[in-house]
Amino acid sequence: MEGQFIWDVDGRRYIDLHAAYGTAALGHNDPHVRSAVIEALETEGVLFGTAHPREVELSELLVSEIPCAEMVALCGGGGSDPLYFGYRLARSLTGRKRLLKFEGGYHGWHDELAVSVRPRLEDAGPADAPQAVPLSAGFAQKEGHAIIGVLNDPNILERIFEQYGRELAAAVIEPVCHAGGCIPIDRGFLQLLRDLCTRHGVILMFDEVMTGFRHSVQGAQTLLGVTPDLAAFGKAMGNGYQVSALVGRREVMSGLSPLGPAFYSGTFCGHLTGVVASLATIRAMKERQIHAHTQKLGDHVREELNRAAAEHDIRAICQSFGSIYCLYLGTDRPIRNYRDIAMDAHSKDSALNRQYRLALLEGGIYMHPYYSNRSFLSAAHTMEEVSRIVDVTIDFMRRNRDAINSRVSVPSGAARA
Ligand SMILES: Cc1ncc(COP(=O)(O)O)c(C=O)c1O
């Protein structure tokens, strides 16, 4: 893999829309990041095992860029780690147990957070009062600790806080829900959540594992103008190298060990390759001003696909935010919450989406199998590749118009609360 391309075992080249689960925001194997890592390997080693000046440098950089970041806890695993540390910290600070999360959101694989990620409609309860459904067998969840909200629905949010406000330790939300492809969250909804958390003494944690650095070095919290108490970062932070971080307000973060009683540790926390890669990634993002470029590419795909859908009378809608876009087939209503995509989510294998991915492959484009057609552009993509993606997609939509238009992607009566 290199830049915007990946190759299969037979040497065929594809335009990559996966970006290694969204991590490669600069493009694969970015030469600047690679050189920084090689230099560190040659001059310093891989794991210092105690505080290293480069960790301090990275922490200071995060504090200078991200609005909610006054203190930083670097983690060594993926994005799941800071989310779990954050939830534990919230429970420790508040003395409460419950978590508010939103149906369709994914916040890592820990038992207590991986709830109602893509539940089957049969299990999920009413659209206006979703039930908590574990993502996996074998979870050691305590019954009923998670309260499930509905994205973009302020009335349900207010009702939840009236009933559970004093029992909630934390509320966690992705400021743009990419677990569901690309579901923008209304700014007013995020602000209401912020206000309700403040009023009820609930720790608000943004999951910026996907949005962070990919949409802006300062996080989606800057773009949307709402500041959480805590935020978790990973993925694009190291452009493919393993690094993640919990950041937050000093008053809250001081509850983590060794300052406070909430345990935080890990052999690989602050691993030097990840730290060095992250410093190089963030600096390259700023120097190259990548976000203006990727925004232009994402906007172009969305506008062209929506224009073609309208022109050819095809029931499809493309939603994008910066460099991430998603084409929803079989509906032309804006996708606002999980119920709008639930039929696809629980099967993870809609025939139409599979056909679309195959058409892309035949056209030299790789989209990773997922329940939605979530696609990642990177700073390495150019208008040339993006035009190819648009052409192949429009050709697919036109050839499959009847199948798309007759598709039941939204269960009747279940889409809206
Ligand atoms: C929004 C979000 N949060 C958390 C995670 C978990 O990150 P990781 O798989 O690196 O542990 C992911 C991974 O896809 C994610 O998309």
Outline:
By secondary structure, the protein is an alpha/beta fold. Helices cover 39% and strands 15% of the residues.
SSE order in H/E notation?
EEHHHEHEHEHEEEHEHEEHHHEEHHEEHH
Low-confidence region ranges: 411-417
Tell me the overall shape: globular
Strand content: 5-15%
Number of helices: 15
What structural class results from the helix and strand content? Answer: alpha/beta
Ligands present? pyridoxal-5'-phosphate
What's the total count of β strands?
15
Proportion of residues in helical segments: 25-40%
User: Mind describing the biggest β-sheet?
Assistant: 7 strands, mixed
Mean pLDDT: 95
N- and C-termini, Cα separation: 44 Å
| Spatial order of strands in the largest sheet | 3-11-10-9-6-4-5
Measured on Cα atoms, how large is the radius of gyration? 21 Å
Can you walk me through this structure?
- The strands form four sheets. Strands 3-11-10-9-6-4-5 form a seven-stranded mixed sheet, with helices on both faces. A three-stranded mixed sheet has the order 1-2-14.
- Residues 411-417 have low confidence and may be disordered.
- The N and C termini lie far apart (44 Å).
- α6 (154-164) runs parallel beside α7 (187-200).
- It is α/β, with parallel strands linked by helices and 417 residues long.
- The protein contains 15 helices and 15 strands.
- The longest helix has 22 residues, at 290-311.
- Bound molecules: pyridoxal-5'-phosphate.
- Residues 21, 78-80, 83, 106-108, 174, 179, 207, 209-210, 234 line the site of pyridoxal-5'-phosphate.
